[in-house]
Specification:
The complex is a heterodimer of chains A (229) and B (804).
Chain A lengths: L1 E11 L4 E12 L4 E6 L5 H8 L7 E6 L2 E2 L5 H11 E4 L11 H11 L4 H15 L14 H13 L5 E5 L7 H16 L3 E5 L3 H4 L4 E6 L2 E7 L1 H4 L1
Parallel strand pairs in A: 3-8, 3-9, 6-7, 7-8
Antiparallel strand pairs in A: 1-2, 1-4, 4-5, 9-10
Helix pairs in contact in A: 3-4, 3-5, 4-5, 5-6
Chain B lengths: L1 H14 L1 H29 L11 E9 L3 E4 L6 H8 L3 E8 L5 E5 L2 E5 L2 E4 L3 H4 L4 E4 L10 E5 H8 L8 E4 L2 E9 L12 E4 L5 H9 L6 E7 L5 H22 L5 E8 H4 L14 H42 L4 H38 L11 H27 L3 H5 L8 H36 L9 E5 L4 H16 L3 E7 L8 E8 L2 E12 L3 H5 L3 E4 L9 H4 E5 H6 L10 E6 L5 E11 L14 E5 L8 E6 L5 H14 L7 E3 H8 L1 H35 L1 H9 L4 H35 L10 H28 L2 H5 L3
Classes of the chains: A alpha/beta (229), B alpha+beta (804).
The complex binds adenosine-5'-triphosphate and magnesium ion.
GO molecular function, one term (chain A): ATP binding
Keywords (chain A): ATP-binding, Nucleotide-binding, Transport
Protein name (chain A): Putative ABC transport system ATP-binding protein
Chain lengths: 229, 804
């Protein structure tokens, strides 16, 4: 599915230079569920943003579906992104001025899907996430868990091949957290590739593979046996 | 506490340096522009308000019925004294005689050309108030051959102001200086550089103008014993008509009558219903100016208010913290109001400075004489104070009120505030700004269109390669000019020339009798005395009959040429030729000149296009001793060399008088000075208003984008393209603009149509220019949006949605 080779990403501020990702190479296969772990500041989010093409690496190459995407122009990246990738953010990033339904509909709009089809897809995914009755509410009227489910719904409504989730359970108590994990597990079972950043080794257990980073480099990689059972 | 608040204010201002600067300067420019316009309006409204007896002074005008009504600004000489004698309420009168054309003053053999010298009664200084430097107002103008000079003229011809009893020659008569006064204030209707006693006029002239009730030519002002209602008193004036005018008419074979009217002095400046009047102010222009000033101020104020409201979002956290630390609502209100007062005050100071700096330029364009000190009159200062309070309160109190009532917890939780009522209010302000801008852009187009229309409108004669030389009024000098005129005959660079008394401003109007069915009808008609070359030189088109010719010497007494309008108005459509015309009327249908129409010419616009075409009769005068002008038509090509040759020759032959040249196109342009003025002012201030509105839009957009950066980031992550992102930013504003356009159109339409109605010939409001102004406004929005849009699209979406 995707292959990163020697990815380097530096942040330069006036005084210091931070090596957020330092020559990292990984390969993730179609249908995998991968968890990325590591201490705060080790470069997890940066890596995820590069995978999601929200950010450019300074050097290294990136193949997505066998295509070299590291040298694409901004427009082309937007195009690839909206067709193949869904995002779930730690802080939900819902648009406050739009209702739940409208938030979820947004990526479909950008794919120019006709209105009736959009409505169908939105209804279906909200149903699946168990928040259909909240469709006309605004994000601020929802609990944290509900908001996160909306965020997941928005990420998967286009049925992307790859879902990237940056600490999707970070803001949730264990009950809501588990709900979100269950949803991701379900998606994965249906064939979606999932890359999830998490601090919790408990959460990481749902993944088939765990990648641990330190200072922007790969520390260990282990296959989670639990999931194999 | 205050120190701490000021510190926060200072840091805030520094933090938003660009926007603070833009908005302070914007407000200052708005204040300066509207102050200038305000000064203009105040000046227009302050005409003659410095006379001590202003509330009791009225101007006497008359509607003459001479087979067709004519409202004249002037009366005959008798009516003033008659009123004083017959009506106890009338305390005094003063008359002004003489059009104020050019005269020659000679002091110690040096000739000074000057204009605006009028004959007037010795009562002048009893009725009106002028400041004497030398002399005694009571009897300054009592004796014949006395003159009172204004300071400027005294300095020009004598080089001093203590010139009592000195002699000077005006044209051909000697005058004694009996007084020197300060210059007549520019905001006075009756302008003069000097006044000569009425008794200086030859007895014969005075008799003619006094005895003939229809020989009108003096401006008459009446001083009443008390303030009166002009309408009531006008009724009483009917008696004058009964008692004097009608009997005189009967005795002289005329059925004409007068209907006298009074206009309060304060209303005279805008009373432009009359013929033979001095240039007047135009109310519709004044209204447009008031609106312009108001809009400019509002646009700047709205920017300022919008800025404060936009800041509110950023400030809510500060307020929350202050409140948890114990600040009261009122102390927070105080803080915000203090801030806005300070900023407004700074803008105001800069604005007043700008006003003073641009005063000179403004005077030049507007033709006003506003001085620096006028800004500090109580009236203007009171208005400025009003503006200050208005802006400071709205920009400070409104956000202060909203913020001070916020619950600290909501603010501190950092939950984003909704784009609720505040957003709506701000959008409304921006919408109004657009509305004003569109009004002003269309206004500029319209005034420009009208000017262009006037310029290109067919005048009925060919104004290219045509110049006019005005001959001296001094008889000896005019005789000296004759050899020079002979030169024109033999110069092959000159195609032709013609002598006439063709005026460019107005035209003499005399009483004719014209054929009307079976009888002869009396009526006044405009006329020109011309020689036989006139039609050829001006390029007039003869449609019927023939032009005057030296082969028919009888043309001088018996030949008349009329224009098309005369044919129509006299009801001669079927056969204008050979209709009977008389002038120099005597009793019993007799006249000194009695003859027939020998030709008809196409209408030509010899006046400004403010006037409708009027009937015109051309009179033949081959010798033209009274001719005042020579019109010269040059052959094709550059005629500047020929002109300078002519000037040299003139100076050789006519030593005492300078070569007085005018070009037709310029003369006509002169007539539209007012419109040109309006156009320049309008163009300039529209530009200012558009720039101000763009400032506002610029800062509002950047705040709006800041506030929506997270949303924009999310949309980009979800696949929105740059264009889609820009549209999200621009959408609201584009709709606002279209809404403003829809609302502005009727306002624009009504206001500008009423302005156009003042012209006899005018364009209409072009849909094209309306749409063009909308496009200009839209382009401005788009430029601003694209500027910000590029910044947004360059940024990584992830930067904007990252939560630290
Ligand atoms: N825009 C930026 N400018 C400068 N430095 C940055 C920027 N973004 C990230 N960094 C730095 O790069 C490093 C990696 O950041 P990243 O956000 O990827 O860490 P993370 O592993 O996701 O941490 P956390 O677990 O706290 O989310 C950190 O040291 C961070 O300070
Ligand atoms: Mg992170």
């Amino acid at each position: 599915m995707l292959k990163l080779e020697n990815i380097v990403k530096k942040y330069r501020t006036s005084a210091v230079e931070t090596l957020a990702v330092n020559g990292l190479s990984i390969t993730i296969n179609q249908g995998e569920f991968v968890a990325i772990m590591g201490a705060s500041g080790c470069g997890k989010s940066t890596l995820l943003n590069i995978i999601g093409m929200l950010d450019n690496a300074d050097s290294g190459s990136y193949f997505l579906d066998g295509k070299d995407v590291s040298s694409l122009k901004a427009n082309e990246r937007t195009d690839v992104r909206k067709n193949t990738i869904g995002f779930v953010f730690q802080n939900f990033n819902l648009i406050d001025e739009l209702t739940v339904g409208e938030n979820v509909e947004l990526p479909l709009q950008y794919l120019n899907i006709p209105k009736s089809e959009r409505k169908q897809k939105v209804d279906r995914v909200l149903e699946k996430m168990g928040i259909a009755h909240r469709k006309n509410h605004y994000p601020s009227q929802l609990s944290g868990g509900q908001q996160q489910r909306v965020a997941v719904a928005r990420a998967v409504v286009t049925e992307p091949k790859l879902v990237l989730a940056d600490e999707p359970t970070g803001n949730l108590d264990s009950h809501f957290g588990n709900e979100v994990l269950d949803i991701l597990k379900g998606l994965n079972a249906a064939g979606t590739t999932i890359v999830m950043v998490t601090h919790s080794s408990n959460d990481a257990k749902v993944a088939q593979r765990i990648i641990e980073l330190r200072d922007g480099k790969l520390l260990t990689e282990r296959v989670e046996a639990v999931n194999q059972l | 506490m205050l120190g701490n608040q000021l510190k926060v204010l200072w840091r805030n201002l520094l933090g938003n340096r660009v926007y603070t600067l833009l908005n302070v300067i914007g407000l200052a420019v708005g204040i300066a522009a509207s102050t200038l316009i305000g000064l203009y309006v105040i000046d227009e409204l302050s005409y003659d308000n410095y006379h001590e007896k202003k509330d009791r002074i009225y101007r006497l005008t008359t509607t003459l019925d001479l087979g067709g009504d004519m409202q004249a600004a002037v009366t005959n000489m008798a009516v003033g004294p008659t009123l004083k004698r017959d009506y106890p309420l009338v305390e005094n009168y003063v008359r002004f005689f003489g059009g104020g054309g050019e005269v020659e003053l000679t002091v110690d053999n040096t000739v000074y050309k000057t204009d605006n010298i009028r004959f007037t009664d010795s009562t002048l200084f009893d009725v009106f108030t002028y400041e004497f430097i030398q002399g005694d107002p009571k009897d300054a103008l009592k004796a014949p051959n006395t003159v009172v000079l204004t300071k400027t003229l005294a300095l020009k011809v004598f080089g001093a102001t203590d010139v009592l009893n000195k002699q000077l020659k005006m044209n051909n008569s000697m005058l004694r200086v009996t007084g020197v006064i300060e210059d007549v204030k520019p905001n006075s209707e009756m302008q003069f550089k000097a006044v000569v006693s009425m008794s200086t006029l030859p007895q014969q002239t005075r008799d003619v103008f006094t005895q003939d009730w229809f020989r009108i030519g003096v401006f008459t002002f009446i001083l009443m014993k008390e303030t009166i209602d002009p309408y009531d008193f006008e009724d009483e004036l009917d008696e004058v008509n009964e008692k004097y005018v009608l009997p005189w008419g009967q005795a002289n074979g005329s059925e004409a009558s007068h209907d006298f009217r009074l206009t309060a002095l304060k209303d005279v400046h805008f009373d432009n219903r009359h013929e033979y009047d001095l240039p007047k102010g135009k109310k519709s222009t004044l209204y447009i100016f008031v609106l312009l000033g108001f809009f400019l101020l509002l646009i700047a104020a709205f920017n300022f208010i919008n800025l404060s409201l936009a800041q509110q979002r950023k400030r809510s956290k500060e307020v929350g913290v202050r409140k948890t630390l114990g600040a009261s609502n009122s102390s927070i209100m105080r803080q915000f109001i203090l801030e806005s007062c300070l900023l407004t005050a700074v803008s105001m100071l800069i604005g007043l400075m700008l006003t003073e700096i641009f005063l000179e330029q403004f005077n030049q364009v507007s033709g006003k004489y506003i001085v620096a000190w006028d800004v500090f009159t109580p009236k203007v200062l009171a208005i400025e104070l009003g503006i200050f309070v208005f802006i400071a309160l709205l920009s400070g109190a409104y956000p202060a009120f909203i913020l001070s009532n916020l619950k600290p917890t909501t603010v501190l939780k950092g939950t984003q505030q909704k784009e609720g009522s505040v957003g709506l209010f701000r959008k409304l302000l921006i919408g109004l700004q657009f509305l004003f801008s569109i009004f002003m852009i269309t206004g500029s187009f319209l005034v420009g269109d009208q000017l262009e229309y006037i310029r290109s409108k067919n005048l009925g004669f060919d104004k290219e390669n045509l110049v006019t030389v005005t001959l001296p009024s001094d008889t000896t000098a005019r005789k000296n000019a004759l050899p020079w005129i002979d030169l024109l005959k033999n110069d092959d660079r000159i195609k032709s020339y013609s002598r006439s008394n063709l005026p460019t401003g107005g035209s003499p109007e005399i009483m004719f009798r014209i054929e009307d069915g079976e009888r002869l009808q009396e009526r006044t008609v405009k006329c020109l005395f011309v020689d036989e070359y006139f039609a050829e030189v001006l390029g007039l088109k003869l449609t019927q009959g023939r032009f005057f010719s030296s082969k028919f010497p009888t043309d001088a007494q018996q030949g008349f040429i009329v224009n098309q309008t005369a044919v129509k108005e006299f009801g001669w459509e079927d056969e204008p030729l050979n209709k009977r015309v008389q002038w120099g009327l005597l009793a019993d249908n007799q006249a000194e000149n009695d003859g027939k129409v020998i030709g008809v010419i196409d209408d030509f616009n010899f006046q400004s296009l403010h006037n409708k075409l009027e009937p015109l009769i051309l009179l033949y005068n081959p010798s033209l001793q009274g001719g005042t002008t020579v019109s010269i038509r040059f052959k094709e090509g550059d005629y500047t060399k020929t002109l300078s040759y002519l000037e040299e020759e003139w100076n050789k032959t006519v030593k005492t008088h300078a070569f007085d040249l005018s070009f037709y196109d310029q003369d006509i342009a002169e007539n539209y000075r007012d419109e040109n003025k309006l156009f320049t002012i309008f163009m300039f201030f529209s530009a200012v208003s558009i720039i101000l509105a763009s400032f506002g839009l610029f800062s509002i957009l950047s705040y709006s984008i800041q506030a929506r950066s997270k949303e924009i980031g999310i949309r980009k992550v979800l696949g929105a393209t740059d264009v889609q992102v820009m549209w999200i930013i621009a959408k609201d504003f584009v709709w606002l603009m279209i809404g403003a356009f829809v609302l502005a159109t009727p306002v624009v339409y009504f206001l500008w149509s009423s302005w156009l109605d003042d012209f006899a010939y005018h364009t209409n409001l072009q849909i094209g220019s309306l749409i063009l102004s909308l496009l200009i406004a839209l382009v401005l929005v788009l430029i601003t949006v694209i500027y910000h849009g590029i910044k947004v699209s360059k940024s990584n979406p992830i930067d904007t949605i990252r939560v630290e």
